[in-house]
Structure formats: structure tokens, C-alpha cells
Amino acid sequence: MSVLLEVENLAKHYPVRNGAILARQVGLVRAVDGVSFTLNRGETLALVGESGCGKSTTARLVLRLIEPTTGAVKFKGTDITTLDGATLKGFRRNAQIVFQDPYASLNPRYTVGQTISEPMEVHNIGDAASRKARVEELLKLVGLAPYHAQRYGHEFSGGQRQRIGIARALAVEPDLVVCDEPVSALDVSIQAQVVNLLRDLQRRLGLAYLFIAHDLAVVKHVADRIAVMYLGRIVEIGEKRALFSNPRHPYTRALLAAIPHPDPSRKGRVTPLGGDVPSPMNIPPGCRFHTRCPFAQDICRQQDPVLKNGVACHLADELPPAGVDFAGGLA
Ligand code: SF4
Ligand code: MG
């Protein structure tokens, strides 16, 4: 497998200014605070964490919708943070996004056909007739009848709208699709259909996905590898099976324990994670998870653990076995 995307020590810090005296900086939000990972062609890497952990900011940095404070994003070996003009446009064609909210992401004044063909127009692909044919082909690809091209977004259900959003992302034949919580706004009964569609399209088209999610249950069926984020950092990264069967970071364990168990009689075994996520303006010293970690020691309050062998925890090799009984099997 060849590497498609390399993210190196990426950070996004936002200065917070005093409302009255705009020039005075009163703080720094460290939304993304030193993130590194790779994504191979045809692979799915899930970025998982609670709201505010920096996963969506990471996704927007990867797509260069925002500029990083420091770090590099290499796509096919080229740092896209330095591109402009035609080379940036070429990258944009290759890296598309499927948004979380299929209700908000479709322009109500556009027909489905216009919505799907817009990226082709932006990138000067084909003429009107060939784009029309391509729209019909894309609708079939995502499991919708071609005549839907004439209809408007509001005439469709959430699951159908997300199919339209996927068709639009695929119109310009990207290598990378960032999926920003693509099923979390959908009914549970529809989620599996959309996840299955994404997997099927990946196999047929060789797509790589950066898949953003706030819990591990969703990514169980879609990820090859998983990166768990907490307060702007990756605290654990690894193959899905290893991460589910042998979670090493206490935060990963807590996220796994939070997945509802299919056997309700075992409910009592789940220990929910206590406390709130600290503000990204006020990240705790030492290990940023120490304020909520049941295993925290003095060293944790003093030294910031680095990500080593896929885990950022001083005690990773000393913790007792996780004992997480994750029923339901792995896809
Ligand atoms: Fe918990 Fe310490 Fe590991 Fe941080 S370094 S996760 S506080 S045990
Ligand atoms: Mg988000």
C-alpha cells in the first residue's frame, strides 16, 4: 500500500482577544496541538474523539480549508500548505468532503443534477452533455434512480440526501474523501446503509477515507485504522482490531466502555468517564488526560507523554488488562 497523505506535527492555535481591547491577546485555543499520521491509498483512517478534541479542525487543515499554525500536510509527497493557484486547485479536485448534515449541505435552489455537476463545472470537466450523463451515472453509483436529477434536495430523506452528497464528492474522481461525521445526523436504521455504501464505493473506486466520528461504535464497521484524539492530540493510533481487542490508552478504554453493550444485563460493568473535557484554552500540564484518568500518578501531572508505539501514556506498559468485553464481533 502506498502512502497518500502524511500529516506531520500539525497544529492550529487560535489567539483569543479581549473584546474591548482587540489588540490584546488574552489566551490561545490549542484546537490541534501536534498531530501526525499517515493515510494509505484505499484505506480508511478514523479520527475519533469527543466534541472539541480537534478532529474536525484536523479535517479542515487536511483539506486546506484553514491554514495551519505549524506543521505539514503532504498529499502524494507534496506539502499542500504551500500550494496556490493551479496546483492548489488540482489538490482540491483530488480531496473532497462529505459533510455531517445532509440537510444543510445541499443548496435548496439547486436541482440534484446541478448540485452534483457543480464540482465538475468548477474544475472544467467535460461539457454540459457529458456532465449530464455523468450525473446519471453517479446517481446510479450511489443507489438512486437517474430521474432524481431533476428534483430538489428537500424532496429527499436524510439518507438519500447523504447519497447525493456522496455523489457530489465523487463527481471529480478524488483519491481522498474526508467524511466528517457522515452518518451522525441520520436515523440509526439508515446509518448502516450509508456506511455500507461508503465501503462498497471504496472497494470499487480505490478511495481513501479520513473518517471523523465522535464514538467508536460507528467506526467499527468502516475503519482500517483508528486514531483516538483528546484535546488536540492523538493519544492512541492503531489497527482497528488491535485497538478494540487491546486498547492501551485509558481514554481509549473509556470510549470503548461507553459503547452500549448488546446484552443489557451487563450494563453495570460499564464505568463512564468522569469529569468534563478541559478547555482547549487551558490544557492541563503533563499528560492532558490526567484530570480524568483513573490511573494518574505524579509523573502524569509533570511530564507530557509522547506518542510511542501507537500510544501516548507513561504507564501504557504497566496498566492492567483492559477487560473490555466488546461483544458483537468485528466486521
Ligand atoms: Fe493516565 Fe498518566 Fe497515562 Fe496520562 S500518562 S493517560 S494520566 S496513566
Ligand atoms: Mg465536528
From TrEMBL:
Protein's membrane topology: Peripheral membrane protein
SMART domains registered for this protein in UniProt: AAA
Pfam families assigned to the protein according to its UniProt record, in alphabetical order: ABC_tran, oligo_HPY
Gene Ontology terms, MF aspect: ATP binding; ATP hydrolysis activity
GO terms (BP aspect): peptide transport; transmembrane transport
Subcellular location: Cell inner membrane
PANTHER family: D,D-DIPEPTIDE TRANSPORT ATP-BINDING PROTEIN DDPF-RELATED (PTHR43776:SF7), TRANSPORT ATP-BINDING PROTEIN (PTHR43776)
Stated family: Belongs to the ABC transporter superfamily.
Protein name as catalogued: Oligopeptide/dipeptide ABC transporter ATP-binding protein
Organism: Roseococcus suduntuyensis
